[in-house]
């Protein structure tokens, strides 16, 4: 499968509006680079109504199967709002580097983010195991 450009993102109107509100209330601090990356993604994303979002797009609360590029390791992550984050269970805040890197990508896209140690990680979105909109949940 071809790799899509990193800047190609599609968001639901609802996710876009909620994330804009979330960022408006986020104070400056250690996550500033991630917040800036998420702001850029929001500013440049294609928007679609929840009912029209393709099933191969990572939306909020989508369960995503990632394959890490160099080690061929598989990982399942779910981008979520900060209050629902449980990294040990795979629920990663959208304000984290990996959470913001995933949002709006399609199956086949390459997500790139930096770890807290400063290492760059690249992982392909191999599959979407669950997407709320594809299951009929348009307001999650």
From TrEMBL:
Residues 54-128 form the Transcription elongation factor GreA/GreB C-terminal domain. SUPFAM superfamilies: FKBP-like (SSF54534). It comes from Pseudaquabacterium terrae. Transmembrane segments: none annotated. The keyword Transport does not apply. It comes from the Bacteria. Pfam families: GreA_GreB. InterPro entries: GreA/GreB_C_sf, Tscrpt_elong_fac_GreA/B_C, Tscrpt_elong_fac_GreA/B_fam. Keywords: Elongation factor, Protein biosynthesis. This is GreA/GreB family elongation factor. GO terms for molecular function: translation elongation factor activity. The keyword Signal does not apply.
């Amino acid at each position: 499968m071809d790799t899509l450009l990193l800047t190609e993102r599609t968001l639901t109107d609802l996710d876009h509006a909620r994330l804009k509100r979330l960022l408006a209330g986020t104070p400056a601090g250690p996550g500033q680079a991630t917040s800036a990356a998420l702001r850029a993604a929001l500013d440049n994303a294609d928007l679609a109504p929840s009912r029209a979002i393709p099933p191969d797009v990572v939306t909020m609360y989508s369960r995503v199967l990632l394959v890490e590029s160099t080690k061929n390791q598989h990982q399942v992550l779910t981008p979520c709002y900060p209050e629902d984050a449980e990294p040990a269970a795979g629920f990663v805040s959208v304000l984290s580097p990996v959470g913001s890197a995933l949002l709006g990508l399609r199956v086949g896209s390459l997500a790139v983010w930096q770890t807290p140690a400063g290492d760059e990680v690249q992982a392909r979105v191999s599959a979407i195991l669950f997407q709320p909109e594809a299951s009929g949940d348009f307001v999650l």
